[in-house]
Amino acid sequence: MSMNHNLNSSPFSEIEKELEENEGLHYQLGSTGIIHIERKLPFLLVYRPEDNDGRDVVIENLLRNEASFIIVTREKFPEYQGLLKSLIKKLSDEFGAFLLLEVWLGEKTYTPFVDTAGFKLLGPSELPETSCRFKAYLEIMNLAGLTPVIQVLASDSRSPAGTEPLLQRKDLKRLECLLLGLEIEPFFRASDKGKIFPLLERRFYSEFSVAFKKAVFDFVKVQSNHNLSGFQSLARREIMPEVWDIDRQLVEIDSRIKFLMLVSPVNGIKAWKGFKKSGYKKVPVFHYRMIPDDPDLLKRALYNIKVEAIDDPTLNYLFREKRAETDKMLSMLMDRESPDFFYGSLQLFGGVDHQLLSDAKNILHLIAPAENEEKGDGEYYNAEEFAELSRRELRFLQQQSPAVVDKVEIKDTIDSMMVDKGIFYIPKKTTIRKQRAEAMIQHEIGTHVVTYYNGRNQPLKLLSSGIPGYEELQEGIAVLAEYLTGGLSAGRMKVLAGRVVAVDSLINHHDFVKTFEVLTGEYGFRPRSAFFITTRVYRGGGFTKDAIYLRGFLSLIRYLKEGNSLEPLLIGKIRQSHIPIIEELISRKVLKPLPVKPRYLTDTGALRRLAEIKDKKDISELINFNI
User: Fold this and answer.
1) How confident is the model at residue 3 (pLDDT cuts 50, 70, 90)?
2) Spatial contact of 257 and 333, defined as CB atoms under 8 Å apart
3) Which residue, 46, 213, 291, 401, could crosslink 234 as a Cys pair with Cβ 3.0–4.6 Å?
4) Each residue of 504-515: pLDDT tens digit?
5) What per-residue confidence (pLDDT) applies to 1?
6) How far apart are CA 406 and CA 398, in angstroms?
7) What does each C-alpha distance from 540 to 287, 328, 336, 480, 534 come to in angstroms?
8) In what order do the strands lie in the sheet with 408-411?
């Protein structure tokens, strides 16, 4: 893209050539104006402030968030009107139609409390459909409690009052160009020229951007034969260099927080022996690893990252969410072994709603109380043997990407398997039934390791450390992987459902012993299994994360039943509600196709089971009762 040239020094023939080659344009218009067309696109936004002193920063940034815009004062605009016509002609010929939107700041009578956001949308009388669609998209904007109120007016003059129109009617007809005007009340300010409400401002940028691109997409779809893949294809693709630096800084801080390790007891086996010796009556005392970094200093570094400098609404949103999540995790580490840890956990992982609790209880009633969480018969792998199988699976992934490291560690200070930053940790005393081994390998390596390396392969490294709230979808995929291998046993589902019941018991302020008794007395869990389920839930001061396994699995099953694909969910550590954002970033070429696929996406049996999900009427049909 041509950058930072003054238009006066570049002949129009050169500009035409750059646009023809789809290189994009970025030129200064005089000393303060700018034209930015990132690539060939069927739209252009225009802002003509009265003069440089009258430029509104919010309106200007609103345009800068888009891929095609002109900002120039009303006085200087006539000098570039010929250029505007030529550009529209070329792009209208390319797309078969063109949408020109002029945006300006309206007036407002300020009151202490504002509950509406006012817009005037000006369009021609002969093309009401486009105006109506744009109005509908503007009306559903979520503006932090303000109700968008859009007045649609048919007018030949679609420019600020007292201003010459951008183009005359005869020019618009000749160029096959639709001109709309949008007057925006300054609802984002506390008073005339006063303080901007920053949260509302950011929300407005994001919501308007989606509404506008949807309107352009509908316009092109109706008015031309040009095939656009979706409204996201109209978004900016150019990424500021600062984005990668901020992404790196956030991931670096996240990588220093071994969160799961730091909230997991190091004396689980010893605590179990003591609890058993007490007749299951004495609440165990847990010990934890020392926290190696000062959370306060990490928070200071976190908020020194200038996320607010990112003007891309989508990336700004993701970075802010990640910063907020990391802040909460650091607060939880400071609150470890105190009641506040539990409330932080509720903020991060949520609780248990009525439907999830009902689903968990139904599963527990479906599975006979005598059904062991893991059947005692059959052959077993010890930790070393299971680690070797895991390394073999990692070497399978290495064949797809040499970036994968076949690192597996056996530790005597953990009680359950976990993956952290791509490394698979196995408890030293692990014994796992051979019938369940492949299911657990695909749970841990086929999901958690695969998404870590797929995320690392992306330009946006945030996908390797995890988009905020990614855990629910991750664990849902991991449990699905167990089903796809044929290894989702009744005992395993019993454990996942039992975790939900234990989290609900915690939320209802029952103590460790009471929750243990609910699991053993009401649902037939063996004492040792009940102890470690309860330990996972009560660690740190109360940890609600374990409810997400069943919640994520059931949510994912519903998603797949709707005909959606599993493979895109493995692009990194993402959350289900962010799938539209991921699709947008893929459309903008910010993200790349995933380089590593788990074995279950190449296995005919697994693919058959995946296809059969849509026909399953009940969760019980996914359980293998024979292992």
Assistant:
1) very low
2) yes
3) 213
4) 999 999 999 999
5) 47
6) 8
7) 9, 14, 5, 28, 12
8) 408-411, 423-427, 418-420
CB 554 within 8 Å of CB 618: no
Predicted local confidence at residue 127, as pLDDT: 65
Element (H, E) at 95: helix 81-95
- Please state the rounded mean pLDDT for residues 566-585: 89
Tokens standing for residue 454: 């797929």
What is the per-residue pLDDT across 179-216, written as a single tens digit (0 to 9) for each? 999 999 999 988 766 788 888 998 999 999 999 999 99
| pLDDT exceeds cutoff 80 at 84 | yes
Beta carbons within 8 Å of 292's beta carbon, 6+ residues apart: none
Task: Report the alpha-carbon distance of residue 171 to residue 538 in Å, rounded.
Answer: 71
- Contacts with 388 (C-beta within 8 Å, 6 or more apart), sequence order: none
What DSSP string runs through 220-259? HHHH-----S-GGGGS-----HHHHHHHHHHHHHHHT--H
Specify the pairing of strand 147-154 against strand 98-105. Answer: unpaired
Cα angle, residue 539 at apex, residues 292 and 476 outer, rounded to 5°: 100
160: which 2 tokens? 């600020």
Model pLDDT for residues 117-138, shown as the tens digit of each residue? 999 999 998 767 889 999 999 9
| CA distances in angstroms from 461 to 138, 344, 618, listed in the order given | 33, 25, 38
Q: Integer distance in angstroms from the first to the last C-alpha of the chain? A: 60
What is residue 369's predicted lDDT score, i.e. its pLDDT? 67
In terms of Cα–Cα distance, which of 311, 623, 578 is closest to 483? 623
The set of residues, in sequence order, having a beta carbon less than 8 Å from that of 591 and lying 6+ positions away, is 458, 459, 460, 463, 571, 582, 585
User: Positive or negative, the Cα torsion across 480, 486, 490, 492?
Assistant: negative
Q: Which two structure tokens, joined as six digits, stand for 39?
A: 């690539």
Burial string for 503-541 (b: 16+ CB within 10 Å, else e) reads: bbbbbeebebbebbbbbbeebbbeeebbbbbbbbbbbbb
